């Protein structure tokens, strides 16, 4: 009795090597897509924080402008009333008398958000710190410089804005 062995190879399924290569390609694709999604979310968060910081810096300038304009409207004796002159390192710097709106960059001096506004006295702590520095450049010129800082994922970020305000009245 003769036994015949089937010498044809059954080609209906995947070999082990083909299966491993297919799994590797699919895994690489999935990891790439997830990595891209993670980076996109991180970039969106950073962009949002930078936009908030830019608005907070602009608001700092607007606070000083509001003090100047209020002084004009109320007929104050000086256009810089409400801004106290102090001396620091031989330079003339001014400090504002609105501590609930202006925080220094010192440790723990985070801006708070009360649901509507950012301030220094009430609400939930945010990641942002704001410092407003005002330098008198002349009798009728104030330079307002605002720095907003925050930390995200171990990195420090900051946004700065600067503007000169004039006593043009």
Task: Explain what you see.
The chain is of the alpha+beta class and 169 residues long. The protein has one domain. Helix content is 35%, strand content 31%. It is built from one helix and eight strands; from the N terminus they run αββββββββ. The strands form two sheets. It has a five-stranded antiparallel β-sheet, with helices on one face. It has a three-stranded antiparallel β-sheet with strand order 4-3-5, with no helix packed on it. It is rod-shaped and about 120 Å long. It starts with 15 loop residues before the first helix and ends with a strand. 15% of the residues are buried. About 9% of the residues have low confidence.
Q: Name the shape in a single word.
A: rod-shaped
Strand content: 25-35%
Structural class: alpha+beta
Which strand order does the major sheet show? 1-2-6-7-8
How many structural domains does the protein architecture include?
1
Q: Could you tell me the number of beta strands?
A: 8
What is the subunit arrangement here? single chain
Mean pLDDT: 80
CA radius of gyration is 31 Å
Q: What proportion of the residues is helical, as a percent range?
A: 25-40%
Euclidean distance between termini CA atoms: 120 Å
For the largest beta-sheet, the strand count, sense and barrel status come to: 5 strands, antiparallel
What series of H and E elements makes up the topology?
HEEEEEEEE
Unreliable residue runs: 85-100
